């Protein structure tokens, strides 16, 4: 049972929804009436599929161009230039890195090098305020920009770990200095943890000569956190650690340390113990709702508050629980979904 909380390269594919292909017409052969240019940091994943499905159901004549940045920031200026040249009706930017490359920070909103005119929706941005993308969640501060918020409040995450391990006093975090989201998460937790009676032990991943994180440093950092008395390891917000999720999860299990992940697939597909997350597919559908408001209802993006996901899923990996000999309480089993028995 899934708990619900708060009720609450440059390779390209073009879809003339709902049929995939290199077409620019809709299903009945008529001209596509609108064009959305979507840029994803790591290809078309769950939120992308949710966005596509929503458009197919509600905006079937929209032409959707999907671009994959392949996790390479040097590709983003070229994609932005292409988007400006094509002048789509809407731009969708996935993640903090893509959104910053397209929209810039608040202090750069008048910089003509960024997108200032084309309506834009951002999605899968963990902290749009902290990243300097928007002024607030109620008002973006930019006429052409709005987006979605999928972040689970950190108090909820910490309370979930406490519900699983009531004696929790020391929380561990590995962060990537090369990712804005990862650094922001470290800073947020450093402020929040003391007020919740926790000590945060945060370690940065080693970097190569180009300033990129080194994957082989993940396991040693996990062992170092264990040696410093960390009782629960938190993935935080990092595409890099998500990419190397098996290495992280295996290291956590090897050190007999539970891993909490904001990404549900780390519990379902890797060895993370616990997750509280907004499902990316639903975040994609939420972005589709915003697209409909902007394209069909002709609403100005800056007049639309950041749309927040209201429903979160609690998932526990029972296979990992067995390896750690750390099982959820009977009370917790009443509201979590258990997998990998």
Question: Explain this structure to me?
Answer:
Helix content is 34%, strand content 20%. With 341 residues, the chain is of the alpha/beta class. The protein has two domains: 11-151 and 279-308, Response regulator (Rossmann fold, 3-Layer(aba) Sandwich); 154-276 and 313-339, Rossmann fold, CATH 3.40.50. It has helices at residues 46-58, 76-86, 95-103, 154-164, 180-195, 218-227, 239-243, 245-254, 265-268, 280-295, 318-324, 330-333, and strands spanning 11-16, 19-20, 34-40, 62-68, 90-94, 120-123, 145-149, 170-175, 199-204, 232-234, 259-261, 274-277, 307-308, 313-317, 337-339. Mean pLDDT is 90; it is low at 1-11 and 16-30. Helix 1 (46-58) runs parallel beside helix 10 (280-295) and helix 6 runs parallel beside helix 8 (245-254). The strands form two sheets. An eight-stranded mixed beta sheet has the order 2-1-4-3-5-6-7-13. A seven-stranded mixed beta sheet has the order 9-8-10-11-12-14-15, sandwiched between helices. Strand 1 and strand 2 form a beta hairpin. The protein is built from twelve helices and 15 strands. It comes from Marinobacterium stanieri. InterPro entries: ABC_transpt-TYRBP-like. Pfam families: ABC_sub_bind (PF04392). This is Putative ABC transport system substrate-binding protein. Keywords: Signal.
